Amino acid sequence: MSIWLLAYHLYQYAQREIKVTQENARLAVISRDAQLNSLAAQLNPHFLFNSLNNIKALIVENPKSARRGIDLLSELLRNSLYNHDSMSISIRQEMDLVRDYLELEKLRFEERLQYGIEADNELDEQLIPRLSIQTLVENAIKHGVIQVKDIALVTIKVLRENNFIKITVQNPGRLDSFRLAGGIGLKNLKERLRLQFNGEAEFDITDQQNGFIMATILIPHK
């Protein structure tokens, strides 16, 4: 009888522990999703503000380009807001957004801004955090192209490396840790990568020997 009572109490204790563990896991997921949603909510106003500033700079100097900029902004907003409730987006959709943004920026910088894109088509439908590459490109323009008086080349690559999707954005300039750390975009991106991939994704920005800065994201490829 004592053995059965002991077994019963051990079973009840184990069940309570399992229930507590499950509840804690559920709360952790809810907390993570709430944080991700909060971070995602910060992106669109930030993105819209930057795009409107680009068009504002064109209105007086080049009204025709400003009108084209408004068309591009409409397309940008349609693409970025269409799945605004989703934390992820396909690489193909993200790159469409990036191309429109670069065209908008090229209206402002004209021949000063040159860019190259290399992307593995087999990764088109892979999901990545929404506006992740876009954030890196915005940063490349703000802290690279604007600082260069001559032609500035921005290079974007999305390739497979071992078991990761490797995203790199390279632009001219020198790494200014204080300035880069102060912006909402990169802080936001780091936190989203940490939460969305449970610490398995990596993000880094480094100086290159050729006078360029390279931002790199590594996302597990499953």
Helix/strand structural class: alpha+beta
Question: CATH H-level name... which superfamily?
Answer: Histidine kinase-like ATPase, C-terminal domain
Query: What level of helicity do the residues show?
Result: 55-70%
By DSSP, the count of extended strands is 7
Total of domains: 1
Mean pLDDT, all residues: 77
- The stretches of 5 or more residues where confidence is low (pLDDT under 50) are 27-32
Oligomer: single chain
Strand content: 15-25%
SSE order, one letter for each helix or strand: HHEHEEHEEHHEE
Distinct helical segment count: 6
Largest sheet: 5 strands, mixed
Q: What's the level 1 CATH class? A: Alpha Beta
Q: Give the radius of gyration.
A: 22 Å
* CATH overall fold name: Heat Shock Protein 90
Please report the distance between the alpha carbons of the first and last residues.
Answer: 52 Å
Output the strand order for the largest sheet.
Answer: 2-4-5-7-6
- Specify the CATH architecture: 2-Layer Sandwich
Structure description:
This protein has helices spanning 2-59, 63-82, 91-109, 132-143, 177-181, 184-196; strands at residues 88-90, 113-119, 127-129, 152-161, 164-172, 202-207, 212-220. With 222 residues, it is α+β, with helices and mostly antiparallel strands. The strands form two sheets. It has a five-stranded mixed β-sheet, covered by helices on one side. A two-stranded antiparallel ribbon has the order 1-3. The protein is elongated. Mean pLDDT is 77; it is low at 27-32. α1 runs parallel beside α3 (91-109), α1 (2-59) packs antiparallel against α6 (184-196) and α3 (91-109) runs parallel beside α4. It has one domain (43-220): Histidine kinase-like ATPase, C-terminal domain (Heat Shock Protein 90). The protein is built from six helices and seven strands. The longest helix has 58 residues, at 2-59.
